[in-house]
From TrEMBL:
Residues 180-209 form the 4Fe-4S ferredoxin-type domain. The keyword Metal-binding applies. Ferredoxins are iron-sulfur proteins that transfer electrons in a wide variety of metabolic reactions. It comes from Anaerosacchariphilus polymeriproducens. NCBIfam families: ferrodoxin_EFR1 (NF038196). This is Ferredoxin. Its cofactor is [4Fe-4S] cluster. Gene3D superfamilies: 3.30.70.20, 3.40.50.360. Keywords: 4Fe-4S, Iron, Iron-sulfur, Metal-binding. The keyword 4Fe-4S applies. InterPro entries: 4Fe4S_Fe-S-bd, EFR1-like, Flavoprotein-like_sf, PSI_iron-sulfur_center. One of its GO terms (molecular function) is metal ion binding. It comes from the Bacteria.
Length: 260
């Protein structure tokens, strides 16, 4: 049985889910969504097709939604969605379910799991991370067995209040806090260029002195969590001091390999 797993990951949670599911399947291809060219339609007809991604502001990330618009899935394929979240899942699954529905694809199953949040505003406390990781792994392994059997699940329903809350969160984060506008503190930066190597949207470019930052931030926060000098901040906000999260089973090299 063949499988294709598309995933988008910031600091490793989605990649961990993808690898865990892949371990239960045969003849599986793993494809980072940010490496897929979105200028044309993508057709896939493997027995199982999965889209795995994090939850941003109670919704699916924009890059994942744009990808879903261009993905054409064979009617014979078992298409599943799998989102992960820190505190609230919101409409993350429903967003993509609707995109695929409009695209003519049939979603057979939808899963979600709570894992430590890499949010700059509401990060998961270090003392709570271990429990979430253990419980999350158990759920993912259980779900992977259902995916292997091509089991169907209930489809996600729209959460109206979460939609309103998501809009408010986006306004505060984008307009007021400027969390899509990265700044690099020159006095801290050693120009190691790790930030440019882990950026999921190719928004940070290596330079002779301080890396150059563009205007296409996906807010995956990889640069914040992997910067060894904690030299990344945002327009009106500094990340929590000494807080950096990445999934313990996913290495920096793993993250770099998923980038463009």
């Amino acid at each position: 049985m063949s499988a294709t797993l598309y995933y988008f990951t910031g600091t490793g949670n989605s990649l961990f889910i993808t690898k865990t599911i892949a371990a239960q399947l045969e003849d599986t291809t793993l494809i980072p969504i940010n490496q897929v060219k979105l200028s044309k339609e993508i057709f896939v007809d493997t027995d199982i097709v999965g889209v795995i991604y994090p939850t941003y502001f109670l919704e699916a990330p924009d890059v994942v939604k744009e990808f879903a618009k261009r993905l054409k899935v064979s009617p014979k394929s078992h298409l599943f969605l799998y989102s992960n979240y820190g505190a609230m899942s919101g409409n993350s699954l429903y967003n993509l379910y609707e995109v695929f529905k409009e695209n003519g694809a049939v979603v057979s199953a939808a899963y979600e799991v709570a894992l430590p949040d890499n949010s700059i505003i509401f990060p998961t406390k270090p003392e709570d991370q271990e429990k979430m990781l253990v419980e999350g792994k158990m759920k993912i392994e259980k779900d992977a067995k259902l995916i292997q059997k091509r089991c169907a699940t209930k489809m996600p329903q729209k959460r109206v209040l979460d939609k309103a809350l998501s809009s408010t969160m986006k306004f505060v984060n984008h307009i007021y806090l400027g969390m899509d506008k990265i700044e690099i503190v020159d006095s801290k930066c050693t120009n190691c260029n790790i930030c440019s190597k882990v950026c999921s949207s190719n928004n940070i470019k290596a330079a002779k002195e301080t890396p150059l930052v563009g205007k296409n931030c996906a807010m995956c926060f990889s640069c914040v969590h992997y910067c060894p000098q904690q030299a990344i901040r945002f327009k009106r906000m500094k990340p929590t001091e000494n807080f950096q999260y990445s999934h313990p089973d996913i290495s920096l090299k793993d993250i770099m390999s998923t980038r463009k």
